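Model: Ready when you are.
Researcher: Fold this.
Model:
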Amino acid sequence: MVYTLEDELKKVLYGEEKVKTFKDLKEEVIETGKCGSCLGCVTFCSAGQLNALTVREDTPDFLDEDKCLECGICYLICPNINLLDSIQRKQMGWIPPIGTYIYLSSSRSENDKVRALATDGGVVTSLLHHMLDHHIIDGALVSKGLNPFSREPFFATTFEDLLSATGFGAHVSGGMKELERYSTYPRTLVGLRSSVPSDMTRIAVVGTPCQINTIRKMQLLKIIPAHIIKYTIGLFCIGTFSFYGKKRESLEETTGIPLQEIAKMNIKEDLRITTKDGETHRIPLEKLERFLRPPCRYCTDFSNEFADISVGGLGSPDGYTTVLLREPSFKKIYDNAIREGYLAERDIKNAGNIIRKIIDLTEYKKKKSQAYDGEADETNSEE
């Protein structure tokens, strides 16, 4: 008898062990400080119409525990729970240390408007533009900057929509300092319910590793509306940052740059801040650790291993985007975008150096995660 991935999934879902529920998720993830507040558990709760769960101060919680159906969906799709990880990796043919990829490139948008707004080379915007023009997708769930430190889910169906969401969001007004708190983490998963019209059947999603991971788990479990997500574009991610209260002042002290003067931020081997006068400042990643959102300290995925295509500035010169194509069907889309002039590639003289940089940051995240786990264990033992 051949043992299949479907058999392995059934063993997880219907095995002898009791299905874990939101109560377990609270104990293992939320109360240990590992919850990233993606709100996937609340958004896709099977008891959603019964209002079993709610959100209190950005944190998922019970509203009425008696209404919980104890189905375990919230537990299984959480990016911090690894029960489905081995099945996902086998299904995708995952290869360590950064996942499977079939093509590496360094490219940029050929559209002047896109390049003027983009953080790197504008590849994501122009790739989605191509996909909309050719009716490959009905729309794309992206994030739109409210200011340089705050983004919200946004569903784009036109090129103008994509342009409005491109880049870092440097259109912030002088009143930004009055904001009570802000974070660079966009709640993309919430947008699947709140932003995507119900008649959409083919969408692309741009997200961080934890968000793409949750989407893959939803697709594995056939949780609606995961079936409408036809393509996933993953962002390289060293982590997202929060600047609450005094952290805003501390960031200004660390960088030496007033927040209202920041026009663009980008992370490569370090944090690169471009001010409104066009000057670029480089801040070592080690200086930014205290600004990382706590759950990001436990993440080990830099290159967005489960996405169809992974993108980021690391390894490419300014004005270009490094692209890891992982899914063969997406390679055809990318090649057509090149051929039709939406994108242009540059020659890569040493692809090994780019891959080495991606691996190095992946290993950096893993070491930091292990260190934080160790600190958490020590804290728990002292208590």
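Researcher: Now this one.
Model:
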Amino acid sequence: MSQHHEVAASSPILRLLILWALNTLGLWVADYVFDGIRFDSVGALWVSGLLLGLVNAVVRPVLILFTLPLTVFTLGLFLLVINALMVLLVATLVSGFYVAGFATGLWVALFLSVFGWVTNLLLGRYTVSVRTN
């Protein structure tokens, strides 16, 4: 008789790997949805997914803090600009990842935000199923 348990991804390493995979999956899907982005290799895709997660964890909060008055004035819409800048920054830093311009970066950032929201909704905020005998 087997038991089924759901274990939250509380390990920082496991959480990082899940976020990395989800970022990479989102970028991969965005590559098929939008004509304005391109990856030259699978390696560039994986590095971009990792770097996007790091940039969103480190650089994005600093930019949000510095632009808080503008973000409040635009009722939060300026966050889309910040997200687009994060995508463009990663494209600048990763060889083999290309974004056609700011407008494409804006649409990709919006897509990644919705993609992340949907995957979080579907996955129940990073739960892992474990079967034991």
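Researcher: Key takeaway?
Model: The beta strands are 3-8, 37-39, 97-99, 127-132.
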